[in-house]
Design goal:
By secondary structure, the protein is of the alpha+beta class. It has helices at residues 11-22, 52-68, 98-115; strands at 2-6, 29-36, 45-50, 72-83, 87-95, 118-124, 127-130. The mean pLDDT is 92.
Length: 145
């Protein structure tokens, strides 16, 4: 399940809903990860652009990988502005065994940071400034890739 939301994520609502959706699915582990906008470099917040077709394809590959391990993955991400101390990213793994869930959430979050087609901007004095120094090029992107 991939969810895109405009603005900050309602962490309590999303985690509660996901838990309730899987409460009777007989998973022994539920491992969530919540990403929060930190106060750094004088920013007021972050803003996000999402290229949905590639994100959906990337996410589907992770759903398939989870299914092969008997697990499921869920993810929510923000579009647009998210202010300091608000959440822009939530992921969770449900698995029969904790070790699978612990390892899978780590792999998923790391690959998300490296590969997801989401562009991050700093919010500074009412302006969106591309956060190039904290961005990672997507493998295969660019004219000469």
């Amino acid at each position: 399940m991939l969810e895109l939301h405009n603005g900050a994520l309602d962490v309590a609502e999303i985690l509660k809903r996901w838990y309730e959706e899987e409460a009777t699915s007989n998973y022994g582990a539920y491992i969530p990860f919540v990403g929060t906008v930190r106060d750094e470099s004088g920013i007021d917040g972050l803003s996000f652009d999402v290229y949905e077709p590639i994100l959906e394809s990337w996410y589907k590959a992770w759903e398939d990988k989870a299914a092969r391990k008997g697990a499921i993955i869920k993810m929510a991400h923000s579009r647009g502005d998210v202010m300091l101390h608000e959440s822009s990213y939530i992921a969770a793994v449900f698995s029969p065994k904790r070790r699978v869930a612990l390892e899978f959430i780590d792999e998923f979050v790391e690959d998300f940071k490296a590969s997801a087609p989401i562009w991050k901007y700093d919010l500074l004095d009412g302006k969106r400034v591309y956060a190039k120094d904290r961005s990672t090029a997507i493998s295969g992107s660019g004219l000469l890739a």
